[in-house]
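User: Please fill in residues for this 282-position structure.
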């Protein structure tokens, strides 16, 4: 969906939609799965998805897909390699939905949303209107769906990370800052599609937005200046060499002010004033 140019609070949202569709009625959902469970879940042969993965990652993806189908009691099937037309009742609607979202964005006159929830609501409402046109067929198909399982499946990964002396941890090519008091601690992280829930032992500590590595493989950072401001007040000159310095400023004017200070003052004084400015808004 990246080519539609959707942004969240001005930042480009590089994302995909999971588009679920029932073949007979045309019921579709692009946000969360609601209702009953189909007896069969069909995918492409997935060779493209596996091509750039190492052996361990391939095994992990296969295991998770099998566990998903087992949880919902679905029989996993796939179309024959090289015969993409076997999924014609799905491939076409994928394109139709994307074009419908593009048209709705044009009518909205803006591709920017205040937050991810607002964008998801926008997609949910559009898909809901499309489903309303298929109400009779959806009602007839609902009668033959299996029941949902009693419990939800696990929708996150759990990993352990250690907070480095830089005041954060690295996970999936993204560096996340955490409060400096956690340096040296081992944290338990629940990794979701859009966020990280961070725990110390069994206690929930904080929730961080999930970052993504750049398409060209470069690492990224998710930085909250509240986490590092105390350390910077002790060593303001550290700002000069921070890898994530541009992500440190809460808004662009703070970055512009730091650049102006560096141009007009000695570096030590410029860093001290910039850190004091950040401290004022904590």
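Assistant: Residues filled in for all 282 positions:
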């Amino acid at each position: 969906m990246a080519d539609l140019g959707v942004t969240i609070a001005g930042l480009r949202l590089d994302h995909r939609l999971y588009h679920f569709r029932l073949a007979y009625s045309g019921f579709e959902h692009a946000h969360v799965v609601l209702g009953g469970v189909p007896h069969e879940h069909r995918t492409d042969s997935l060779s493209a998805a596996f091509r750039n993965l190492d052996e361990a990652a391939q095994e992990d993806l296969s295991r998770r897909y099998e566990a998903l189908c087992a949880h919902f009691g679905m029989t996993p099937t796939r179309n024959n390699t090289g015969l993409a037309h076997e999924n014609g009742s799905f491939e076409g609607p994928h394109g139709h939905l994307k074009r419908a979202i593009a048209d709705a964005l044009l009518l909205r006159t803006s591709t920017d949303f205040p937050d991810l929830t607002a964008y998801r609501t926008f997609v949910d409402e559009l898909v809901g209107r499309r489903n309303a046109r298929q109400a009779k067929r959806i009602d007839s198909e609902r009668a033959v769906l299996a029941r949902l399982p009693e419990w939800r499946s696990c929708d996150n990964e759990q990993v352990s990370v250690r907070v480095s002396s830089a005041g954060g941890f690295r996970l999936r090519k993204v560096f996340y800052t955490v409060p400096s008091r956690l340096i040296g601690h081992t944290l338990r992280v629940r990794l979701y599609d859009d966020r990280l829930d961070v725990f110390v032992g069994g206690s929930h500590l904080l929730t961080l937005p999930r970052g993504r590595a750049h398409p060209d493989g470069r690492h990224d950072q998710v930085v909250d200046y509240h986490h590092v401001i105390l350390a910077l007040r002790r060593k303001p000159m550290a700002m000069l060499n921070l890898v994530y310095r541009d992500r440190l400023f809460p808004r662009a004017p703070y970055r512009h002010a730091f650049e102006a200070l560096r141009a007009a003052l000695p570096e030590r004084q410029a860093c001290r004033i910039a850190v004091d400015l950040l401290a004022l808004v904590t």
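For context: The chain is about 40% helix and 20% strand.
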